[in-house]
Specification:
about 290 residues, mainly alpha, 14 helices, about 70% helix
Length: about 290
């Protein structure tokens, strides 16, 4: 009479797996449709990509595409035309100035070039010691000195390092700022990891993600002020904001643990019912026989 046992177990598996299946479907749908741009933005049929990867291009030009593909820009669907303009869907107009093509900016124009998207960061940079030096002398660190150009990676505390900073001055003051930023950076990394874990299990995190993004963006803006005193003062504010998000995340993990425990409880109930049904059926067969 194994059929009496199999049916409840199959039903239980279906109930428990439905949540995970829906979560997996949602992730796939968002990745492939909701959060992904069309092919041009990805560079699949971009005239820029086709030309720069062709055999007619020298290796240096081809390398730019490889760097971009591994960059934080590419991971966030920022393609060639988003920075350089032009018409990526039309090879004949891809480098047309009428379509906004600007090519490689002059060194003095780099802050404004990057600041087209990174507005608040540009403003803080221009008001900082770095920015004022750059505007006054045309020398000193601009965006590409710290972040690179086509191989841009996600900003991190690693940028504040003796390797970079000691090119222009001693590392001591930069080290003080890094120490002030360390706690906020650690919390941001932990929250980002936890939010990804919760999404895998289908837990709604939209509100926490928006709060995380606001604080993350504000923190990056603060980062570029190069003002140790301001960093120390405002880092405590960001820490408090992030602790609120951490508290909400802990509650979400508690809900997840409850779901798991409840699923285990249902499993035991189904097993118990299956055994009862099986024993009753055996008893009925013996009486009938």
């Amino acid at each position: 009479m194994m059929r009496y046992l199999i049916i409840p177990v199959v039903l239980l598996i279906a109930v428990v797996s439905t949540g995970l299946s829906l979560a997996s479907y949602r992730e796939t749908f968002e990745r492939e449709f909701m959060l992904s741009p069309w092919a041009i933005a990805k560079g699949e049929i971009s005239a820029c990509i086709q030309c720069h990867t062709s055999d007619s291009m020298d290796s240096k030009m081809q390398q730019l595409v490889q760097e971009w593909r591994a960059s934080w820009h590419a991971k966030n669907n920022v393609s060639c035309h988003d920075c350089h303009g032009g018409a990526p869907e039309d090879a004949s107009m891809s480098m047309s100035h009428q379509r906004g093509f600007s090519g490689t900016p002059n060194d003095k124009d780099i802050p404004a070039f990057c600041g087209t998207c990174h507005i608040a960061i540009k403003d803080n940079y221009l008001q900082s010691g770095h920015g004022k030096t750059f505007l006054d002398t045309g020398e000193g660190p601009s965006c590409v000195n710290c972040h690179g150009s086509h191989d841009i990676q996600q900003a991190s505390m690693d940028i504040i390092s003796e390797q970079f900073c000691s090119h222009c001055h001693t590392y001591e003051r930069a080290k003080e700022m890094k120490q002030a930023l360390f706690m906020v950076e650690s919390k941001l990394n932990t929250i980002n990891t936890d939010l990804k874990r919760l999404k895998v299990f289908g837990i709604a995190t939209d509100r926490q993600e928006k709060a995380y993004f606001r604080n993350h963006a504000g923190f990056r803006t603060l980062f570029h002020s190069i003002d140790v005193d301001a960093v120390r003062e405002k880092s405590s504010d960001y820490t408090q904001n992030l602790e609120i998000i951490e508290g909400e995340i802990r509650e979400s993990f508690k809900q997840l643990a409850f779901r798991r425990n409840f699923s285990a409880y249902l499993f035991l109930v189904f097993i118990g019912l299956s055994i009862v049904v099986y024993l009753l059926s055996k008893s009925y067969e013996q009486k009938s026989g």
